[in-house]
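debug: dumping io for the single-chain case to check the tokenizer round-trip. Nothing else runs in this session.
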Amino acid sequence: MQKKEFIRQLNELVPRPDPVTTEALYRFDRECAESEYIDMLTALRVVARNFSVETLQGAYELIQHQNAALPSEMFAAAVCLQAGRTPAEVSQLAVKGALMGFFGPERPEEPSRIAVCTVLEEGREQRFYTMDFGRFNPQHALKLAITYGRKAGISTTQAMACLTMDHPEFAKKIGGPRCILHGWGSELTEALFQLQPDCPAVAAHITCNADLGISEVACHPLWLERNQSQTSMQRM
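debug: decoded output
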């Protein structure tokens, strides 16, 4: 995309564009072009579709701070901004690498597959998130984790954190790249849980009660609508 067109589209997208900020984002986008799977303009369009106008403005202004978020980190940055972090604080999270590996939608029309997950076991609550909502059955996953935990001598919570998308395969350690659940005890997980229920960035809240062997899923209405719409388009 030519610079003039990039600037035009970005200035139309954000509520309060600034020439210096827009210019900096264009240069940064060019620097990232070869290594990123998503461009900055698309990343900000995804933010606009899933978060508030002020969060979009904050994501746009991250470049004003010492360390900008990469286009692939912009969705995670938006989660933190929406949860109340300042752009300066989110910039520091980018420095620490806390925004890496968190994958939201790649296109504005794509529904978010981010869901928060609470695992209840022996009166304790542990929080996670998944980036694969709709691609696995929570009830089936919980049953596999209960069985595996008993055999391996670990808690069901630990087993859930090791269960992979290749289930019934379990990772050797918690939080591997193919694991269903991520973010045990992370700041990003806490930020996700702080989002308002009407935020479409979180597709659902999954609750897994290890003691009762029961899982419950509360889907965001917009996720159901967008997912059905995308499925219909793929069938055309």
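debug: round-trip ok. The CA atoms of residues 44 and 111 lie 15 Å apart.
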